Amino acid sequence: MKNKMSAPKGGARKGKGFLRDPFFVEDSKKRRKIDSDVIRSDDSDDDYGLAGKHGVREEEEAELVEETADEKRQRVARAYLDKVRGIAAKAEEDEEELEGEREDEREGERDSRVSRILQQEQLEDAGRVCRAIASRVQTPESSDEFRVLVKHRKSVTAVVLSEDDHKGFSASKDGTILHWDVDSGKHEKYQWPSEEVLRSHGARDTQGRATRHSRHVLALAVSSDGKYLASGGLDRHIHLWDTRTRKHIQAFPGHKGPVSCLTFRQGTSELFSGSFDRTVKIWNAEDRSYITTLFGHQSEILTIDCLRKERVLTVGRDRIMQLYKVPEESRLVFRAPASSLECGCFISNDEFFSGSDDGSVELWNMLRKKPAYIVKNAHALLAANNNIEQKDSGKIPNGHIENGDHSSGSYHCQSAHSWVSSVAVCRSSDLAASGAGNGCVRLWAVESETKGIRTLFDLPLVGFVNSLAFAKSGQFLVAGVGQEPRLGRWGNIQSAQNGIAIHSLKLS
């Protein structure tokens, strides 16, 4: 019992000694001096107060790091809403009829205008509304023509524009990728990293005819936020670039054939790739990850397109255009009645626009398996145009004359000039364009009510038009031109200049 009682007494003595420690019981002179020094260092503005400033900076950085994804989305939404409110306020100031109204009525009108702007933009982004731009395009004057903005050493294979239409990206058969300004034409080149860096970013040694040294680029795509640029080509990899630093950040292997086409889903970092291996693969650029593979084509996939919905439109050499509904894990098959389809793109969620190697352009509807409207001989050769002009008093050929004999025995490279090699549609509008190697780019008006398309104007341009891109506003059209077609060398136009050409469009 004595031993048992001695332990608590010792503990009590030890505890009392702990409590009697002046550092914990009362503010000693030494501790008061330390606290005062810390306060002075935090309050001072001289060089000795840097520790306090760094502490405040670290706290601010910690607050930024602690921001969640939901908080970031709310912050971005508030900033965008303030921007729209500013646009609505400016429009309100320009209207003279609001001068005599009361302040509360003005606020109500401003809120309703903001609501209309947001709703209109949401419908346009979703592909559920069509802007009437084709009827506003004015007839080009004789002085209006394509001007060369950027030059490439070899034929341009792909051209894309950023979401704000201020920046553009182009790729060429020589393997170069350029980042250029739309207004000034100043451009910067993307530098390919070394083999060691590529392997560290996920690249693998390719097999077959393509080697890991191949830099032949066939496709480009830029994300909606402008952060990522994706490129693909003969090395069978999808390369991901940071547009702010122009640095290579990731290589996606997986395709067994050349990567022929790329597209980002609008408003997301979801990337779709099409290849000569007849498959479509889905990637996530933000997570640097592979998602899944889509099958269905029986031949090489040539072009791919996607809007905001998880629906992917692909065109292949098997005379088939397919619409993949990713969430439903289903697909719709559209069969071309003529030769091989060369290119295609969305007009809206339910309508598509395509071009064929027999020189025709087609308008498709999701409710029909065949084209709703076909314009044959859309890009007739110049010689054929001259003959037709003599007979029809300058009228544009409308499909009654074919582009020569397309039988297997007489098919020659001369007919490649009239292949419709590229098409484009101004987003959420009725304005479309098609390009070939016959010396012009043709503008079209899509008439959804009559389920037809009609010719607007021909814009002269020498060379194979391998890629087209409209500005979102519809104020200009960009074309990637080359002396050779994008996917081969079955034609050559020596007078053409390899590069990026831009044509302004005047809207009424």
TrEMBL record:
User: What InterPro entries does UniProt report for this protein, alphabetically?
Assistant: Rrp9-like (IPR039241), WD40/YVTN_repeat-like_dom_sf (IPR015943), WD40_PAC1 (IPR020472), WD40_repeat_CS (IPR019775), WD40_repeat_dom_sf (IPR036322), WD40_rpt (IPR001680)
Give the main location. Answer: nucleus
Q: Where is the composition biased (Basic and acidic residues)?
A: 30-42, 103-113
The UniProt annotation puts the region (Disordered) at: 30-69, 90-113
SMART domains under this entry? WD40
**What are the BP-aspect GO terms?**
rRNA processing
Mention one GO molecular function.
Answer: U3 snoRNA binding
Q: Where is the signal peptide?
A: none
Which parts of the chain are WD repeats? 149-190, 210-251, 252-293
The record's subcellular locations are:
Nucleus, Nucleolus
Indicate the transmembrane segments per the record. none
SUPFAM superfamilies in the record: WD40 repeat-like
Q: Does the keyword Ribonucleoprotein apply?
A: yes
UniProtKB keywords: Nucleus, Repeat, Ribonucleoprotein, RNA-binding, rRNA processing, WD repeat
Name the family the entry cites: Belongs to the WD repeat RRP9 family.
Under what name is this protein listed? Uncharacterized protein
Species of provenance: Carpinus fangiana
